[in-house]
Design goal:
This protein is of the alpha/beta class. It has 3 domains: 17-58 and 170-226, Elongation Factor Tu (Ef-tu), domain 3 (Beta Barrel), CATH 2.40.30; 64-163, NADPH-cytochrome p450 Reductase, Chain A, domain 3 (Up-down Bundle); 229-386, Rossmann fold, CATH 3.40.50.80. It contains 15 helices and 16 strands. A hairpin with a 2-residue loop joins strand 5 (81-84) and strand 6 (87-90). The longest helix has 18 residues, at 341-358.
């Protein structure tokens, strides 16, 4: 009698896989203004599977230094107990594992107002919505709970009262930058480490510095796969693809290229990549140039914004190559974009419409309809992963 086949484990937010993080490599040069890293997370023994285009969900923990500063600002030792749902645990552990503490939220300002803080009450007035947003999350002025507790020391909180104002620490999603067919027991990420100064203190991005600084050795962190069917490669491996991914937006396109190489896809591949300086910020340069040399990558257009007096971005390179982009689209190419939603993706979208006008001979209205209704919605050949 044959042994029963055991079901593959299902990992999710409630039951993440406890993974280790054996590889953490800095991709940017010493003179770069950024610290972008290549991370490899072990899937050994997990049975976890993913497709190129999917995202990895990560459950990080808070910076212990920030936890201690928060405890000091509260006037607590950290040994006090708090109740989270039906579980009682020490305050220090709760702040480390369970709550978002690296920026303050409106709910806490409301609690300050309840406690008689006049400035908080003023900021909460409907006509001061913009001022409140600037106060909490303005550029270079982001405030966390340490800032507010120090600014208004007259407002006292019990540990439970404080925790009841906090948001649960959420997962972080990252585009996967590897193909499982090329790396059978690991998943790769390409992440810019966030660090900046505000109000006289160094601030650290929660998950990016967890990856860069605090997750190593035998330490495990919970992970699971977030399926993204809307951002998959075309099913036909002969279909050409155009990929626009400046900065860490290049992550899924590294995965795409590894995938297409692994399956022997014959479709043409064109990548637009941009960053600040070629000498410092050209991630995966050897790999991309190697693919270009052996034909796995048909064309590579680069935009390093600060290598010349006038800044050049991926949308500028698109404009220069507009005729060829239009030709590829007429051949059935899929067009992919990954990265910043508000600026980059909007500029790329506008340039794509302009290409349909200039090289497709369409009116402004026809070009917009072709891109937004035809290419994106009807044919689903224009796919975006923007954030």
């Amino acid at each position: 009698m044959s042994e029963p086949v055991s079901a593959k484990p299902v990992y999710n937010n409630k039951n993440p896989f406890p993974a280790t993080h054996p590889v953490n490599i800095k991709l940017t040069g010493d003179a770069s203004e950024k610290d972008t890293r290549h991370h490899e997370i072990s899937l050994a023994g997990s049975g976890v599977i993913y497709e190129a285009g999917d995202a990895l969900a990560l459950k990080p923990t808070n910076d212990p230094e920030l936890v201690e500063l928060t405890l000091q600002a509260l006037g607590c030792s950290g040994d006090e107990t708090v109740k989270i749902k039906e579980v009682t645990k020490p305050l220090r552990e709760a702040l480390f594992r369970d709550y978002q503490i690296h920026f303050a939220e409106k709910k806490f300002v409301a609690k300050l107002a309840e406690k008689g803080v006049a400035k908080a009450a003023e900021l909460l007035k409907p006509e001061n919505d913009a001022a409140l947003k600037e106060y909490l999350t303005g550029r270079n002025t982001v405030r966390d709970y340490v800032d507010l507790l120090r600014e208004f020391p007259e407002a006292k909180f019990t540990p439970q009262e404080f925790c009841d104002t906090l948001r649960v620490l959420a997962i972080r999603l990252y585009s996967i930058s590897s193909s499982l067919k090329a790396h059978t027991e690991s998943v790769h990420l390409t992440v810019a480490t966030v660090r900046y100064k505000a109000h006289g203190r160094l601030r650290r991005g929660l998950a990016s510095t967890f990856l860069a600084e605090r997750w190593s050795g035998d330490t495990t962190a919970g992970i699971f796969i977030q399926t993204q069917k809307h951002f998959r490669l075309p099913e036909d491996p002969n279909t050409p693809v155009i990929m626009v991914g400046p900065g860490t937006g290049v992550a899924p396109f590294r995965a795409y290229l590894e995938e297409r190489q692994a399956i022997g896809a014959k479709g043409k591949n064109w990548l637009f990549f941009g960053e600040q300086r070629a000498a410092q910020d050209f991630f995966y340069r050897e790999q991309f140039e190697g693919w270009l040399k052996d034909g796995a990558l048909t064309r590579l257009d680069l935009a390093f914004s600060r290598d010349q007096a006038e800044k050049v971005y991926v949308q500028n390179r698109m404009r220069e190559a507009g005729a060829e982009i239009w030709k590829w689209l007429q051949e059935g190419a899929y067009f992919f974009v990954c990265g910043d939603k508000n600026k980059m993706a909007a500029d790329v979208h506008a340039e794509l419409i302009a290409i349909a006008q200039t090289h497709g001979g369409k009116s402004a209205e026809e070009a917009k309809a072709f891109i937004e209704e035809g290419l994106m919605k009807t044919e689903k050949r224009y796919r975006r992963d923007v954030y």
